[in-house]
Amino acid sequence: MTGMTRREMLAAGTALAVNGLAGKAAAQTAPATGLNALAAAKGMRFGSCFAWAPAGADRGSFANPAYAALLERDCGVLVPENEFKWQALRPDATTFNFDRFSDMLDYAEAKGMAMRGHTLFWHKTERMPRWLNDYDFGADPPKSARTVLGQHIRTAGKYFGDHIYSFDVVNETVSEQGALRESALSRAFGGTEAMLDFAFHTARTAAPKSQLVYNDYMSWEPGNDAFRTGVLRMLEGFKKRGVPCDALGLQSHIGIRSNDSVKSLVAGQERAWRGFLDEVTGMGYQLLITEFDVNDRGLPADIEKRDRAVADYAKAYLDICFSYTQLKDVLAWGMCDKYSWLQGFSPRGDKQPMRPVLYDAGFKPKPLYAAFENAFKAAPGR
Ligand code: XIL
Fold first, then answer.
1. pTM for the predicted model, two decimal places
2. Strand pairing class (286-295; 45-50)
3. Which ligand 1 atom minimizes the distance to the CA of 341?
């Protein structure tokens, strides 16, 4: 691809097989163009998720020239949509395969874009590999639980700690009811709290230069009170116990779920959201927007009206978030409607394609793109 990839197999003599290691980083900075230039003027960065795909595939990938053009126009930071998750990296307990992720890292570094790591651990049973849910933790479960999670975090840190400036160490461990989720792994640890503490401490040691993030989808929409409270309690606990978590990742899968006007929706949601962000930043945490998109299921089919409402709703949300100078990085969950995960995850009742991100299926910027431009222009510097 770029001629920079240095594939190497880890030397024998280790318990783990690690394939597909990346080449050396090209010390570059992304050219300031598009949204990332507007962000940079405020000390911020803009970016997106992207995927691995074979050359020329019609996917949201660097290997699709039309999609790569969007990344290169607007992004200073990238994150793999799926290729850094356990399912992609670790087919079993003792094998790691970084081939696809390495291709993505090579691309990002060749283009001077920073890379996020999503995610070292997604603590939701249905998102964990089957082999892990079925794992035999043997006679000393806490010990083997630490080995299996520790090897994952240490391996990622060892080979990519210098290349990934920010890791989602844990993703989605708080339930919508505000409790800490459990799994076979957390039970083997003797509890979720012990597992979370171990994950962050291990990540700090394995990747001492990287920002360590807790990432979740608690949102500003009604019905999220208990969820937000659960996240706050967990973050408070981290502070009390000296757990090295630097930032809260606001996934920001926002969405309009009622026929109310955008103005009245925002008016009803702003206070609770600011209260939440005040508490998080008051504890000393940094913020990031990690997976922005707007679910438009609740809006009428008319494209002009739909795009307008999505853009206005997003602009109000971004203005509130950007008023916190602890927030520097803003990543969309994809650049082009055509490849958005929401097309499959949350289709519209009327079967019309969703329009959740910045460019339409024809790769043309939408009003949502202008909302981002305006939000960056209006943001206070940091
Ligand atoms: C989603 C991907 O976009 C899909 O392709 C995949 O099938 C499931 O995961 N929260 C997260 C992301 O943290 O990892 C999810 O990504 C979207 C919700």
1. 0.94
2. unpaired
3. 3
